[in-house]
Specification:
- By secondary structure, this protein is an all-alpha fold.
- It has one domain.
- It contains eight helices and no strands.
- Helix 2 crosses helix 5.
- The two termini are 26 Å apart.
């Protein structure tokens, strides 16, 4: 399509505005979350303790790794790891999706673990 070598880095996707597979996975999970927010609880609704993470989604206690690797648990982890500027748009579906896609496109993550281990100063 661009005339580059087949072994060229996926970082080229950023230029073409194509999401990598891990970014597509994150985008699809967050799209599902935005359409079904009422199924998730915040930490504030579970307990009345005023903590800095009171607006994060509550992660249920899970002892089984198959549950921890499942989509519902992953949605919560990913949402809680998004930049604050995107989380604040959760009540505006279209703006949230546009900001999320712009963020994911700007970073071209090779894996979901890379998304979790990014430094907090990585903003778009």
């Amino acid at each position: 399509m661009v005339g580059t070598h087949p072994r060229t880095s996926c970082r080229l996707f950023k230029k073409l505005e194509i999401l990598t597979v891990p970014s597509q996975y994150i985008h699809s999970l967050m799209s599902f979350f935005i359409g079904n927010q009422e199924k998730f609880q915040s930490n504030l609704s579970v307990h009345n303790i005023n903590t800095r993470n009171k607006h994060h989604l509550h992660r249920p206690v899970a002892n089984l790794s198959c549950f921890q690797k499942g989509a519902p648990y992953s949605e919560i982890r990913i949402f809680n790891s998004l930049p604050r500027s995107i989380i604040n748009l959760k009540n505006e579906k279209t703006k949230f999706k546009v900001a999320l896609k712009r963020f994911l496109n700007a970073h071209s993550f090779y894996s979901v673990d890379e998304f979790f281990t990014r430094s907090d100063d990585m903003y778009y």
